[in-house]
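Journal club prep — side note

Before the paper discussion, L.F. wants everyone to see what a predicted structure for a comparable chain looks like in C-alpha cell form. Sequence:
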Amino acid sequence: MPRVVPDQKSKYDNEEFFRKLSRECEIKYTGFRDRPHEERQARFQNACRDGRSEVAFVATGTNLSLQFFPANLHGDQRQVPTREYVDFERETGKVHLKAPMILNGVCVIWRGWIDLQRLDGMGFLEYDDERAQHEDALAQAAFEEARRRTRDFEDRDRSHREDLEDPVVSKIWD
C-alpha cells in the first residue's frame, strides 16, 4: 500500500490545510500539560535530545508528534539526532528543529524553533521534493509488483481453466 498520494506537489500546493501550515505561524510544545512549567521545560529539552517532541500549530489546533531524524532512521533507539535536526546552539534560549514526515500522503519537512523558557515559538511545513520523488518511486515499484502478481495469477487461472476444458479430459468423463 503506497504511503503517498499520486500527485503530492499538487495536493501540497492546493489544499487549504497545507497552505495554512506552510506559512510560519505560532507553535507550542504540548507535552505534559498537567505538570509544572519547570518540569515541562526539562522534559521538552530531554525529548528534543532524544529526537522527538509534540507540538501544536496554535491557529489551527493541528497537533503533530515529531521525530527529529532523517526520514530513513525513524525508530532507532540509540540514535541521537544531529545538529541539522536539533540545534540548541544556533540561538541562545531557543532550539531549532527539523522533522521530515509524510502528512496526509504528502512528503513534508516541519521546521521551526521553540523558546526554551516559554515553550512556544514559530514553525511551518515545507514540501520535501527529494523525499517525494523517492516515495513516488517506491509507490510505482509497489504498483508494478502488484500488476505483475495479478498478471501471473490471471495466467495461472487461465491455464487452469484451459486444462479443465481440455477435450481429452472431457472424453474421460463422458
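L.F.'s comment for the group: The beta strands are 25-29, 52-57, 62-67, 86-87, 94-103, 106-115, 120-127. Keep this in mind when we get to the figures.
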